[in-house]
Each structure stands twice: as C-alpha cells, then as structure tokens.
Amino acid sequence: MAPKREKIKNESDPSLGFGLKNEPSEPINATDMEKTAKCIYWFRKALRLHDNPSLMHAIQKSQYIYPIFILDPWFVQKAKVGPNRWRFLLQSLNDLNEQLIRKNSRLILIRGNPSAVFAEKIKEWDINLICFETDTEPYAKLRDQEITKIATELNVKVETKYGHTLYNPDYVYKKNNEKIPLQYQSFVGALAKIGDPPKPIDEPSNVFNKLEIDYDLYKIPDLVSIGIDPSACGPLLFPGGETEALRRLEDKFKNESWICSFEKPNTSPNSLAPSTTVLSPYLKFGCLSARKFYWRLKQVYAKRKHSMPPVSLEGQLLFREFFYYVGAFTPNFNKIEGNPVCRQIKWDDKPEYVKAWKEARTGFPFIDAIMTQLRTEGWIHHLARHAVACFLTRGDLYCSWEKGQEVFEEYLLDQDWSLNAANWMWLSASAFFHQYFRVYSPIGFGKKTDENGDYIRKYIPVLKTFPAKYIFEPWTAPLEVQKRHNCVIGKDYPRPIVDHNVISKINISRMKKAYEESKLVSTDDGDDKKSRPTSSKSTKNPPKSEKTSPDTRPPSKKSKN
Ligand SMILES: Cc1cc2nc3c(=O)[nH]c(=O)nc-3n(C[C@H](O)[C@H](O)[C@H](O)COP(=O)(O)OP(=O)(O)OC[C@H]3O[C@@H](n4cnc5c(N)ncnc54)[C@H](O)[C@@H]3O)c2cc1C
C-alpha cells in the first residue's frame, strides 16, 4: 500500500521545478515590456498544448513565438523507428499543427541537424529566447547542451521547464538527499514525503501573434517523403496526437468503476481488445500529460473506493515515474556495460535465436502471436511483454536483454528510453527484480486467460482452425490432426526452437551461477550506492526480491506448462 501523501501547495510552487506563474489571461500585448522576446519554442516530446509548462513559460515571456519541430536526420538514419511509430509521430505533429492553427499559429517543421537549424534560425528570425522542455535522455542532454552553447554565444537566452513526468526528477533527487532507490516501494515512499505532483495547467487561453513567415517552406512531411513505405504500417488502431490522447483518456474515464477497480494482475495479456488503457504511446510522445492523467484519477478516486498502488492505475504511473527517475541518474542505463544498476550476466550470442524471436518463428504460438501483434500493431499488453522478454532472456533463449530492447525500440509505439531499458532489466532479472527462478511458461501462461487460443488464431492464421487442445503446443498434435487442419509442424509452422521444460531448468542454474558471481553489496536500497551490483566473485545469497513487482501475475515458482 502506498504511504499517504502530504498535501502541499503545488502548481505555482517554483520549488517543484515547474515555476510557472498563473496562466496569462490577456492576449499577448506588444507593448508589454516583459514580453519583448522573439522566442523559438522547440517541440520535441510534449506534443501538446495542455499542461505544457515550458510552452506556457515561452508564452509568458514572449511577444512572438516560433513553434518549431526539428526532424533530426540522426533519428531518421540512426534511431530504430519502425513505420508504425513514424506514422504515430507524423499524426501527432499534424494534430499539434491543428491545435496551433486554433491559436492563430502554425507548426514550423524544419529538417536538419538541430545545431545547424538553431545557428541559422536565431539570426534569420532575430531570436532572443529559446524555450523547450527539459529531457533526461543521454542523446537529448548532449544535444541540448550543444544548442545552449550556440545560443549563449549568440547572446540568446535558453529557458527550460520540466514537464514529462509527474515530478521534476532533479527536484526529487534533491529532496531525496541525492539517493536513487532501486525498489519501487522506497521510491514511492520518497515521493510521499514530497507530496502530490503539480496539478496540470490548462492550454494557453490566448492566441499567438501572427508571424510573417512562408509556411510552405515548413510543411509536415508525409511518410513517403521521409522514405517510409505506408504499406509497411499495420492497421491504424491508435492514431497519434493530443486530440486523440484526450479523447482516449476521457473514453476510459467514462467507466469509473473500471478505473477504480483496475488491478493490473486482473488484466489479460491476450484479450482481443486491450485490457489496459493504451495511453502509453500518448504519454511517450507527450500528447498526454502524465499529470493530467494522474489528477483525473484523483478526481475519480475521491468519489469512491479504489484499488491502490502498485496494482492500481496510479501505481502504473508511479512505475513510469520510478523508471524515469532511475534512468535519469544512472550512467549507461540502456546498456549492460558500465551500467551500475545492472547485473553483469554473460548472455549467449545467438543471433539466429534473436532473429527467430523477432520474426515470430519460435514455434511457440503464444510467443509468436505476441511478436506478430507487436510488429504489426505496435502495442502489446504488459504481461505479454513479460512473456516474450522472459522467453528471450533468462527463460528460454538466454540472449541478452539489449537485443530484445532493440527490437522493442523498433516496433513499439510507446518506446520510451528509460521505460524500455528498465523493464528489460526487470524481466531479465538484471536489476529491480531478482526472482530469476520464476519463469513464465510459453505454453501455460497464455492458456490461463485464453483457453481457446483465440488470440493465437488471430495473429497466427495458419493455426486458425487448430483444436484448442493443441493450439498452445501444436507439435503435440497427431500428424493426422495437423494435416486435417492444414498445418503440419516443421512445414507450415516451425517446430519449437527449444524444449522449454529442459532449457528453462538449465537456464535457472545458469542464472543462479551468474547471481553468485555478481553479488549485491547490500540489499538496503535506502542508499543507492550500497545497493548496486558489483562483479565480485563472492557467493552470497541472491538479494531479497522486490515485493511489489509490475509483474503482477507471478508465474509459478518452477517453470511448468
Ligand atoms: C520488456 C518491457 C518493455 C517495456 N517497454 C516500454 C516502453 O518502451 N515504453 C512504455 O511506455 N512502457 C514500456 N513497458 C511498460 C508497460 O508494458 C507499458 O507501459 C504498458 O503496457 C502500456 O500499456 P497501457 O498504456 O495500457 O498501460 P496501463 O496499464 O494502462 O498503465 C498506464 C500507464 O502507466 C505506465 N506504465 C504502466 N506499466 C508500466 C511499467 N511497467 N513501466 C513503466 N511505465 C508503466 C505507462 O505509461 C502506461 O501508459 C515495457 C514493459 C516490458 C515488460
């Protein structure tokens, strides 16, 4: 149960790191001496007008605002972004543009390296202020340092606000005596001492002053013009953008009893319609503010009895917060090497295993169905992520979580640097979660919530008519049954890549050995520095496991079908 929070004044308390004055209610006034700036407002995440502290700051400070988004070639060429996420991004930008048009403005989309773009546009537009939302990811931090340097040299101020999570991580860090808890419960305890997160601010009520600019030069591209084949996209289940984010949020909140009784363990990894909110892609791109979601929950919780963290929806948002926080202060958080919170496990190097897993060819229909849903639709349920992540790493294939992280990076709509890395470490029992002996069965786990295998039938059509009795392990069906249903194993659908019962036991002993070889100095995560894994050869017992796991439906102690 989460500790009770102290009430504090919030949204206008600058110490929380947001530092906003009240929203201006007057139209932007050219004679206002406070507002002489020509400001570039740089959208990166936070693709929204509602509850956008850095945008509001820019509005408060400036007479003219140039709202830009930079299509950075680094992302186009180097980042692993699949077609579905590109589509989501472009839809979000188009929606943002529509929102800005309502405010007498428009989105200015510029293709290019951010440093070059700023060097040019500061001069061209005679800019004296740049505002954007602070980012905690390593690439973004370096990029932002570079922009700040360029701006400072040109005598231009850079002013930023934090806005992507419930709390400003720097503020929590200070308040928590610079400690980084590695357990959710400790982190939630630290937040409870701080008090509630800031309340969301409304979208700006005023309209922007008109710019003299040729918008035709700055149009939002379509998929084809950035080299993406639209036919590579899957069905459009979750359109991008703030409008859709707010619609989806309100749609979920229509059913208040569902919201209040939400318990992650009681949701299903393989229902045909999502059993959780699917607000994650909107939170990832900042189409939806996490604080808006949080305070909407509080509003409904105030009226009736409700579930509690870690299993409640509030608990889910706190997991996001937790992983963002640890990610913001941990070097090499998305890597094994040089990552002080990650156990140094020597995983096998088997590219053919990773490829089969990625391409949904493991021969385990539950795993392959999930990987098909991931590739085609871009979103899979949290426990489905558990099943495939455990399978790739400590459960069956013993491949590095970094490889799985890469595939998720490419396919997920909600791919989020900190969250992806943290959850992969969790599932591979490399950090946060230590019960490596609890392995998901690629056969039995899915059966619990989908006895008839309807989810498998949907995503693996070759098994569509297979009898329910065999659908989770089709290789056990007699040949005549396989033939009758036009799916001969080894010909029409692969044989299982490993023998789960055998390999999972071997892997548990490999994990045990790996744990013995990398002891934790202390399991008291009150002091982060003491609780980080080392590569010492000591054979201490594995650390006490995390009590509150997002793993909400723990698999049986020994791997079983
Ligand atoms: C291996 C693995 C990789 C993952 N990678 C990502 C990722 O890149 N991006 C991402 O947003 N989530 C990731 N998750 C966490 C989680 O699976 C998704 O956030 C969740 O399934 C999104 O669906 P939802 O919006 O319906 O969640 P809901 O259950 O409705 O929860 C509401 C919100 O809480 C947050 N949340 C819930 N669970 C978690 C969690 N375990 N960690 C962090 N935030 C959480 C999300 O923002 C989510 O939208 C990963 C999980 C695993 C096991």
Automatic annotation (TrEMBL):
Residues 533-542 have a biased composition (Low complexity). The record marks 347, 401, 424 as: Electron transfer via tryptophanyl radical. The keyword Hydrolase applies. Transmembrane segments: none annotated. Residues 1-28, 517-561 are annotated as: Disordered. Binds 1 FAD per subunit. FAD binds at residues 276-280, 316-323, 414-416. GO terms for biological process: carbohydrate metabolic process; circadian regulation of gene expression; entrainment of circadian clock by photoperiod. Residues 1-12 have a biased composition (Basic and acidic residues). Residues 37-166 form the Photolyase/cryptochrome alpha/beta domain. GO terms for cellular component: cytoplasm; nucleus. Keywords: FAD, Flavoprotein, Glycosidase, Hydrolase, Lyase. Pfam families: DNA_photolyase, FAD_binding_7. Its cofactor is FAD. Belongs to the DNA photolyase class-1 family. This is 6-4 photolyase. It comes from Brachionus plicatilis (Marine rotifer). The lineage of its organism: Eukaryota, Metazoa, Spiralia, Gnathifera, Rotifera.
